[in-house]
Amino acid sequence: MQKVSVFLLLLCSSYGYAQTFxxxxxxxxxxxxxxxxxxxxxxxxxxxxxxxxxDNGKIxxxxxxDNYILSPDKTGIARVSLGVRTAGEIKKIxxxxxxxxxxxxxxxEVGRKTGGQIRLNELRYQSCVIASLDGxxxxxxxxxxxxxxxVVERNNEDIFSHKNYKACFDETSKNILSRIxxxxxxxxxxxxxxxxxxxxxxxxxxxxxxxx
Length: 212
Prior knowledge:
- The protein is mostly beta strands.
- Helix content is about 5%, strand content about 55%.
- It has two domains: about 5-100, Sandwich (Immunoglobulin-like), CATH 2.60.40; about 105-210, Immunoglobulin-like (Sandwich), CATH 2.60.40.
- The strands form four sheets. Strands 11, 13, 14, 15, 16 and 17 form a six-stranded mixed sheet that branches. Strands 1-2-4-7-6 form a five-stranded antiparallel sheet, with no helix packed on it.
- It starts with a strand and ends with a strand.
- About 25% of the residues are buried.
């Protein structure tokens, strides 16, 4: 997994000397409403003494390892502050800002294809239209397809057209797929999807050329 390290040199005037800490963020991107994994280190300080806070959502210790989970509740800026407990007091190490991105719009796929050629038997065995997010590893970030229109073109004429009101092919769509022939063009269009935060989007059409 690609990681980007952000190294911070923070001048703490209240203590009269420089303090450093590092934060490593998976993919170098933080997404709103998602459990973003962050690793924090501060040379010379035990991680058990860390006090980490944010002004955007919440940040808490990952119970399975030494990482932290930052879950922002809005896009824009998240300020993350690090302090350490020493002699019953909390000494501030510093604060930094991170840019919080919205969850990207996914691509619609059938059989891991967004378009192009597909073999007849391969198409007939497909069960659903998927909203795919390249490089996004959070399960919670996944969009869900809610509806689409299935159109089959043969000899430059539409021979089937059906509105499917879920991600997986209903019985009518399955019947249409079973009657497709080599040379047909399949257009899955008007694809609607919903995000984990209930926003909606219309995804790009999937245009497939059926080959033997």
